[in-house]
Design a protein that fits this description.
514 residues; Rossmann fold; GMP Synthetase, Chain A, domain 3; 9-stranded mixed sheet; 6-stranded mixed sheet; 14 helices; binds xanthosine-5'-monophosphate
């Protein structure tokens, strides 16, 4: 394991992902963890992340020098680099000279462990106020910028390395290469970690955890729950029952994908609850977005619990486990934890105990999203499910601006299917993060379709690119693709007479309209 010490902000997750892209397993630990505890994990290497603090701020995170004396290779980045510098006796000045964004880096030792095979001049991503002016004894300075005399230092003897910039972000042109040089050359690690091992390992763990008991899993149609369920099904077969609540707010073909393709690929036992009527009734007359979310969430839990109760009634009290598709970023963000949490499920269904306690099975808690997709692929899940773009739990319910009705949902489903089809045909699925299609049901627009004047509704295309949905930019789709989508939607979906493009980044706009 490579430990990524998290000094705050979102850098640590990105670094951990990049390390795994280099096929070395990594885990994130908080910078508040005592060094003895970090070393007890027997790390093969340690990476110190960047962070929002200045090393001179009062209360800024520090590091015990013992970390650098344990013989474990260490790579410091940005804040981690500066901390390494001052901890080992170098000089970091509060120069006031800030560097932010894309910065030219001059490599002074082209053949060094970190920079071997990369150009002497490269572009890196900087974000700092303080600057290292003298490296600690024993280090060789290997790169600089116009503002920072020491932008990288290396000590092959002690296997300690550092760079002032952020090699983990894509704007640092040779960042991944430099990270790999640290891992392979500096720390002597081999690129052996794959999601292939994850399947075998998780199947064994799930078998052990579930034993001869039974488990339930709620399928949302999304990647995470599908892969989690597929893993558990591989481990314990029909001791698992999946529940799929069809709330009528899914996109075209998605429910069928779960009912047919997912079941065919996994052989899983599936209980489908057709709850469209119930959701539509509950949503009648509601146009406030938060109100919609609350209603959909509430109804969902009720329907799911009822299904759960029926399964327990059928299968007896051996149902002890609930499968969830929790991912590593959720685990890191909620402060770690050991996966032993119990969740309570409240019942008001006749004959069953008031509170039922389940143990969680979370086979994806160590994985990032792209790794979950790889595991899904290895488990033979259909491409449409594995590569599915993010889709909000409340579904199309929050993509109709105005009241949600069956007619409007059907309209939106058609328009959305056309947009998806054309984006796929143009080979743009990997480039865009997601492309909500939004029906402005409360807005009407005049048009001329066929021979006559129409008074219909506009739909909005909202294609965005993003790494994590926290920030996003609108995707610059080719005009021909936009034209094709627009023509098809206005031709094929009679009630829509206008297609508009959302050109807002996030922030200030969110990805969804509601
Ligand atoms: P926003 O609109 O906040 O969306 O920029 C960020 C990401 O989250 C998804 N999203 C949701 N997912 N329940 C969900 O499960 C929700 O209520 C919800 N709202 C937004 C959205 O699709 C995007 O990927």
């Amino acid at each position: 394991t490579v430990l990524v010490v998290d000094f705050g902000a979102q850098y640590a997750q990105l670094i951990a992902r990049r390390v795994r892209e280099a096929r070395v397993y990594s885990e994130i630990v908080p910078s508040t963890m005592p060094v003895s505890e970090m070393l007890a994990k027997n790390p093969k290497a340690i990476i110190l992340s960047g962070g929002p603090s200045s090393v001179y701020e009062e209360g800024a995170p520090r590091l015990d020098r013992a970390l650098f004396e344990a013989g474990v290779p260490v790579f410091g980045m940005c804040y981690g680099f500066q901390l390494m510098a001052i901890t080992l006796g170098g000089t970091v000045d509060n120069t006031g000279a800030r560097e932010y964004g894309r910065t030219p880096l001059h490599v002074s030792r082209a053949g060094s462990t970190l920079f071997e095979g990369t150009p002497t001049e490269q572009s890196v991503w900087m974000s700092h106020g303080d600057a290292c002016s003298a490296a600690p004894a024993g280090f060789t300075v290997t790169a600089s910028t116009a503002v920072v005399p020491v932008a990288a230092f290396e000590d092959d003897e002690r296997r300690l390395y550092g760079v002032q910039y952020h090699p983990e972000v894509l704007h640092s042109t040779h960042g991944q290469q430099i990270l790999e040089h640290f891992l392979y050359r500096g720390a002597g690690l081999a690129p052996t970690w794959t999601t292939h091992n994850v399947v075998d390992e998780q199947v064994a763990l799930i078998k052990e955890q579930v034993g001869d008991k039974r488990a339930i899993c709620g399928l949302s149609g999304g990647v995470d729950s599908a892969v989690a369920a597929a893993l558990v099904a591989r481990a314990v077969g029909d001791q698992l029952t999946c529940v799929y609540v069809d709330h009528g707010l899914m996109r075209k073909g998605e429910t069928e994908q779960v009912e047919k393709d997912f079941v065919a690929a996994t052989g899983v036992k599936l209980k489908v609850v057709d709850a469209e009527e119930r959701f539509l009734t509950a949503l009648k007359g509601v146009s406030d977005p938060e109100e919609k979310r609350k209603i959909i969430g509430r109804e969902f839990i009720r329907v799911f619990e009822q299904a759960q109760a029926e399964i327990i009634a059928d299968e007896g009290p051996a149902v002890e486990f609930l499968v969830q598709g929790t991912l590593y970023p959720d685990v890191v963000e909620s402060g770690g934890g050991t996966g032993t949490a119990n969740i309570k499920s409240h019942h008001n269904v006749g004959g069953l105990p008031e509170d039922l306690e389940f143990q969680l099975v979370e086979p994806l808690r160590k994985l990032f999203k792209d790794e979950v997709r790889m595991v899904g692929q290895e488990l033979g899940l259909p491409e449409e499910i594995v590569q599915r773009q993010p889709f909000p739990g409340p579904g199309l319910g929050i993509r109709i601006v105005g009241e949600v009705t069956k007619e409007r949902l059907d309209l939106l489903r058609e328009a959305d299917a056309i947009a998806r089809e054309e984006l796929t045909a143009a080979g743009l699925d990997r480039e865009i993060w997601q492309c909500p299609v939004v029906l402005l049901a409360d807005v009407r627009s005049v048009g001329v379709q066929g021979d006559g004047r129409t008074y219909g509704h506009p739909v909005v295309l909202r294609p965005v690119s993003s790494e994590d949905a926290m920030t996003a930019d609108w995707s610059r789709l080719p005009y021909e693709v936009l034209a094709k989508i627009s023509t098809r939607i206005t031709n094929e979906v009679r009630e829509v007479n206008r297609v508009v493009l959302d050109v807002t980044s996030k922030p200030p706009g969110t990805i969804e309209w509601e």
